[in-house]
Amino acid sequence: MKNYKKTIVVFGCTGTVGLPVLQLLIKENCIVRGVLRNPQRTYPISIKNTSNLSYVSADLAIIKEVEDACKFADTIFLLTATHPKQEEYETNVINAAKKYGVKRIVKLSAPDIEPVSLVEVSNWHRKIEGKLENSGIEFCCLRPQAFMQNWERNTFTIRRFGKIYGAIENAPRNYVDARDVAEIAVKLLLQNTPLELNYISISGPEAITNYDMAERLTRVTNTNIEYLNISSDELFKTLKNRAKLPKWLANHIVELDELAIKIPEPAEDSTEKILDKKPRLMNAYLQESKELFKRKSIWEF
């Protein structure tokens, strides 16, 4: 139909990738529906000055609520928080999409790892991808490397102690800006022609060691920050007992460090070819975010 506006539903619209997806879509000729897990959640983007944005809330464990969120949608951006129930939640979305005739799903997935047993969370994503393959819905799974924004998880120890802790040794890790991933997702959500690929691996402009990251953070914050390599067991205990992370999440972080040592990460960017523009750089991200990493006096905590 002439001038038809697609309705695009965005799961995970408050997150690192989901929010920039939402920000980009509201500038396009489409109707955008953000899905909130909690009806009391503050809207990530106000609806006051936008005519094409709305929100619904849905408990992803309740099938009817998921179905209501997917009604009348043309396309879905599928992103739920990493969680032991992720397979259940995303399967509920896929089933609802199939029931209501959704034409396309773009899913944020995880890097392709062989053997998949090296990282438990990757196994969850492979199972969900299998559900998409059998759904009959056109789909594309994005498989990005680590996000630059993931460094914000280290702000507490950096700001308080000037320390970065990990078990990655001197292995470099590839980082991609979440905003570049969001742009790729939006391009696929809006594309009017059939998708050419079901799986797209996404890497950033360079692979960086934690020692190098400590040097970059030192420079951009003008304070001394160092990386301390500890054993995998020490890291797990620190994350579980001191940071109070759930066991599965502490294990996931350790698995990722161990994986980078076992399997070299890509050193070259893949986003330029997809987006036809240069990728965002880690140094640029750090410059933008330097206030998050600046050390604070102990009495400021």
pLDDT average, as an integer? Answer: 95
Number of helices: 12
**Biggest β-sheet strands, sense, barrel:** 7 strands, parallel
What is the helix content? 25-40%
β-sheet strand percentage: 15-25%
First-last Cα distance = 57 Å
How many DSSP-defined strands?
Answer: 12
Give helix and strand order, one letter per element, not per position: EHEEHEHEHEEHEEHEEHEHHHHH
Q: Please give the radius of gyration in angstroms.
A: 20 Å
Estimate the global geometry from the Cα principal axes: globular
Content-based structural category: alpha/beta
Low-confidence stretches: none
Q: Mind explaining what this structure looks like?
A:
The chain has 301 residues and is an alpha/beta fold. The protein is built from twelve helices and twelve strands. The chain has helices spanning 18-25, 63-70, 86-99, 120-133, 155-161, 178-190, 210-221, 232-242, 247-262, 271-275, 282-288, 290-293; strands at 6-11, 30-36, 53-57, 75-78, 104-108, 138-144, 146-147, 163-166, 173-176, 199-202, 206-208, 226-229. Strands 3-2-1-4-5-6-10 form a seven-stranded parallel beta sheet, sandwiched between helices. It is globular. The relative contact order is 0.13.
Produce the secondary structure layout.
Elements: E1 6-11, H1 18-25, E2 30-36, E3 53-57, H2 63-70, E4 75-78, H3 86-99, E5 104-108, H4 120-133, E6 138-144, E7 146-147, H5 155-161, E8 163-166, E9 173-176, H6 178-190, E10 199-202, E11 206-208, H7 210-221, E12 226-229, H8 232-242, H9 247-262, H10 271-275, H11 282-288, H12 290-293
Parallel strand pairs: 1-2, 1-4, 2-3, 4-5, 5-6, 6-10, 7-9, 8-12
Antiparallel strand pairs: 9-11
Helix pairs in contact: 1-6, 2-3, 3-4, 8-9
